């Protein structure tokens, strides 16, 4: 029995040594594992920050591109808004009845008016159709409202001043009379 006892003692000692070895390994590995975990967390935070910055930069580039496209698309807007009153005056002048003395002047004015309208059309300016159309607050400015049985409700009856659109943007709404 003493051999068995000795074997058991040796096994117990080996187990104790193994436990102590595990404890020593844990105390050595624990700080290293903590450092590894901290470094992994820092790396993950840096990767997230990088991805957010990349997304912000992509958004910035897209905004700049869209702003540049809009600037190019509507580059003529200020010029057009300055020219529209002159175009209105041409149209009023062309409504004057012509006699023999003013016929040649009116023909010259018609040619200038036509060239002006063509130049504006090349830039994407078009007149907004109003008379007979349904009232649209984005394209029409109602300055009068009347009740007439001869027209549908909410229909533009008369146009006092033409409205204009530059490409897809209304730069001046039509001033109109609307049937209630």
Keywords:
single chain, 180 residues, alpha+beta, Nucleotide Exchange Factor Grpe, Chain A, domain 2, 2 domains, 3-stranded antiparallel sheet, 3-stranded mixed sheet, 3 helices, cytoplasm
Description:
This protein is an alpha+beta fold and 180 residues long. The chain has two domains: 1-73; 74-179, Nucleotide Exchange Factor Grpe, Chain A, domain 2 (Roll), CATH 2.30.22.10. The protein is built from three helices and six strands. The chain has a three-stranded antiparallel β-sheet. A three-stranded mixed β-sheet has the order 2-6-3, with no helix packed on it. A hairpin with a 2-residue loop joins strand 4 and strand 5 (169-172). Helix 2 (77-94) packs antiparallel against helix 3.
Taken as a percent bin, the fraction of beta residues is 15-25%
The span between the termini is 118 Å
Return the domain count.
2
Strand count: 6
CATH architecture of the largest domain: Roll
């Amino acid at each position: 029995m003493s051999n068995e006892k000795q074997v058991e003692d040796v096994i117990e000692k080996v187990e104790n040594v193994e436990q102590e070895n595990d404890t020593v390994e844990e105390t050595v590995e624990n700080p290293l594992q903590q450092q590894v975990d901290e470094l992994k967390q820092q790396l993950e935070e840096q990767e997230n920050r990088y991805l957010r910055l990349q997304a912000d930069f992509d958004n910035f580039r897209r905004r700049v591109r869209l702003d540049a496209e809009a600037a190019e698309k509507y580059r003529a807007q200020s010029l057009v808004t300055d020219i529209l009153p002159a175009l209105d005056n041409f149209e009023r002048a062309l409504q004057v009845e012509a006699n023999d003395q003013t016929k040649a002047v009116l023909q010259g004015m018609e040619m200038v008016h036509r060239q002006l309208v063509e130049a504006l059309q090349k830039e994407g300016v078009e007149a907004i159709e109003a008379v007979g159309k349904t009232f649209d607050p984005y394209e029409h400015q109602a300055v009068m409202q009347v009740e007439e049985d001869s027209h549908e409700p909410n229909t533009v009856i008369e146009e006092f001043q033409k409205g204009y659109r530059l490409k897809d943007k209304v730069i001046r709404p039509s001033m109109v009379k609307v049937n209630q």
